Amino acid sequence: METSALQVVVLLGAAVWGLTLLARRLGVPAPIVLLLGGVPLAFVPWLADVHLQPELVLLVFLPALLFPEAQDTSLSEIRNTRSG
User: Fold this and answer.
1) TM segments (predicted)?
2) Contact, 30 vs 19, CB < 8 A?
3) What are the tens digits of pLDDT across the range 43-80?
4) Cβ pair 37, 28 in contact under 8 A
5) pTM of this prediction?
């Protein structure tokens, strides 16, 4: 089965989304469900040879990871941490 990198990225994004919804429904922390869901995906043979370019990771995945954390962090907490 021949797949492109874009198809794999979309598949993995859908898997992350679905597993995150499952974690919310079960009341379990999302990283635990993502870990348990990601282990079987690691053994799928056609996913092993996908190489993502660093620019794609920086422009697509990193902002998606940082945005929710930026909304949950308070400015006063950052100031207190910075001033040491």
Assistant:
1) 6-23, 30-48
2) yes
3) 888 766 667 788 888 888 788 878 877 787 788 887 88
4) no
5) 0.58
